[in-house]
Amino acid sequence: MLAIGASAQHRVESECTRQTITHKGIEREYWIYVPEDISSDGAMLVCLHGHGGRARHENGRLLDLAREHGFIVCYPQGLKDGKDKNSWNVGYPFQADMKVNDVAFLRKLVRHIQDRYGLSKDNAFLTGMSNGGEMCYLMAQKDPKLFAGIISMAGLTLADMPLTYKSPVPFMEVHGTKDKVSLWEGDPTGQYGWGAYLGVPAAISYVVAGNKCISYSKEELPLKGKNTVVLHKYTDGAPACKGGIPSEVWLYEVQGGGHNWADKSMDTYAEMWKFMDKFMHRK
């Protein structure tokens, strides 16, 4: 699924440093912003582009958030798939011959950056848009302990994904009900070419079950644009780690919203920071 529009492009390329890491004999590219005063318990946010996207043209607005709150942002680059598009291997039909294990790659990348900058292993966060959002669900299923929290933007759970979660991980999803690429209601037959996938409420129910959340509430966010945003909160879940606070799942239903970061309908980046701040581990 698609990357963000041109309005946020080029900031990553101008404000971040290009680095590489070798995984399974392949040189992989990533772009990184590191604040000068990053502390040992400082956070890191990994941002995954959409289908056909480029890391250096990904959402530069996250850099403002990183500067304000003093955390690292990393933008890794996906590899070519069967459509000759940069992507994350989440199991689309046209990725059947794609051998790259992006779960393993992201694990190696996160640990490499944590070691290089002397960061705590407890404060890595993951976000991604569209295809990057699908990768968020896959990481939550395959390697939940790698991240303190996961934030999907217009992401989906493919029907062929495990649909089970090994351990709790705080999770946030932002999704428009009129998204014409990642359909809110799902695509049970795979007629649009991405493979069969669940509707957003059904997908979130699996995350809620994995986190063992037992309480639910909802609220309307202050109206910013024409679309009402309803926050569905599932709380009082199992702690993601020993001594951690109970896990939660936050679903932002952008009523009438499309395939984007929803920042014209809500203060997306403030909400992201609110989520990260709540689930960050501090000494």
Structural description of this entry:
By secondary structure, the chain is α/β, with parallel strands linked by helices. The protein has a single domain (about 5-280), classed as Rossmann fold (3-Layer(aba) Sandwich), CATH 3.40.50. The protein is built from six helices and twelve strands. Strands 1-2-4-3-7-8-9-12-11-10 form a ten-stranded mixed β-sheet, sandwiched between helices. It has a two-stranded antiparallel sheet with strand order 5-6. The termini are far apart. Mean pLDDT is about 95; it is low at about 1-5.
Put the structure in a nutshell:
The chain is an alpha/beta fold. 23% of the residues lie in helices and 23% in strands.
List keywords for this structure.
single chain, 283 residues, alpha/beta, Rossmann fold
